Amino acid sequence: MSTKTKQQLPKWFHGELYEYGGTVRNRFSGEEYELNNVELSMYDFIIGSTMVMEMAGGYKHTDVNELRKGLDWFRQHNAEAYMILLD
């Protein structure tokens, strides 16, 4: 789990802020990582955004932009988890 305790979600984030963190498993490799509540909130935003865009069959520029911002946020705040779960 990330040792940073002062993580905050960015102002552009419009997902849900969870009260608790949890363990996430990479759907391809099976590797697991424990995320705090802020990281889990962003992770679910990233995965949910990806799924919505894939199901819609097209990408709006604003959706892709927010997804990229989410990935950048995750890379900056927990690079190890990013490499295990999202890379």
Please tell me about this protein's structure.
The protein is mostly helical. 51% of the residues lie in helices and 9% in strands. The protein has three helices and two strands; from the N terminus they run ββααα. The chain has helices at 37-56, 61-77, 79-85; strands at 22-25, 32-35. The longest helix is centred in the middle third of the chain and has 20 residues, at 37-56. Mean pLDDT is 88; it is low at 1-5.
Which term fits the overall shape?
A: globular
Give the integer mean of the pLDDT values. 88
* H-E string: EEHHH
| Number of helices, counting only DSSP H or I runs of 4 residues or more | 3
Q: Strand order within the widest sheet?
A: 1-2
Compact summary:
This protein is mainly α and 87 residues long.
Brief descriptors of the model:
single chain, 87 residues, mainly alpha, two-stranded antiparallel ribbon, 9% strand, globular
Describe how the helices and strands are arranged.
Blueprint: E1 22-25, E2 32-35, H1 37-56, H2 61-77, H3 79-85
